[in-house]
Amino acid sequence: MKYSLHFLPEVEEDAFSGFSWYESKSPGLGREFLRIFYALSLEVQRAPLHYPTIHGVFRRRLLRRFPYAIYFLVEEHRVIVTGLFHCARDPRLIEDQVERR
After folding, report:
1. Is the pTM for the entire model greater than 0.90?
2. What pLDDT shows up at residue 86?
3. What distance separates the 2 farthest-apart alpha carbons in the chain?
4. 98: closest CA among 4, 6, 8?
5. Which of 9, 35, 55, 90 is most buried, by CB atoms within 10 Å?
């Protein structure tokens, strides 16, 4: 089954925040963060049901090399990315944010 990929507007803010932080630590590292985020988002699009359900209907894909996770849900033929969060955050706060978006 083919899925379309959609990002909530808040995800761009999440990604830019991570990009800015990593880029300030080492030039080029922010670009690598974004490259991995978008590459793994495409993996999620290809096989979204492969990833575990976390927080009810939301699923999670961990990023390689960076302590972040992509949170998304699957509706019919769509994958909707709802957040990109640092894994050190309180899981209850993450759950609250993905549900409010």
Report:
1. yes
2. 96
3. 40
4. 8
5. 55
| Separation of alpha carbons 38 and 16, rounded Å | 12
Tokens representing 37? 């985020």
What's 101's DSSP letter?
-
Residue 42 one-letter amino acid:
L
Instruction: Supply the pLDDT for residue 53.
Output: 94
Q: What stretches in the chain show pLDDT beneath 70? A: none
Cβ proximity of 66 and 36 under 8 Å:
yes
Give the containing element (helix H, strand E) for 19.
Answer: helix 9-25
DSSP conformation class of 67: S
Query: What whole-number distance in Å separates Cα of residue 96 and Cα of residue 67?
Result: 19
Q: DSSP E strands: which ranges in the chain? A: 4-7, 59-62, 68-75, 78-86
Residue 95 is predicted with a pLDDT of 85
Q: Would you say 36 and 63 are in contact if contact means Cβ atoms under 8 Å apart? A: yes
- pLDDT tens, position by position, 76-85: 999 999 999 9
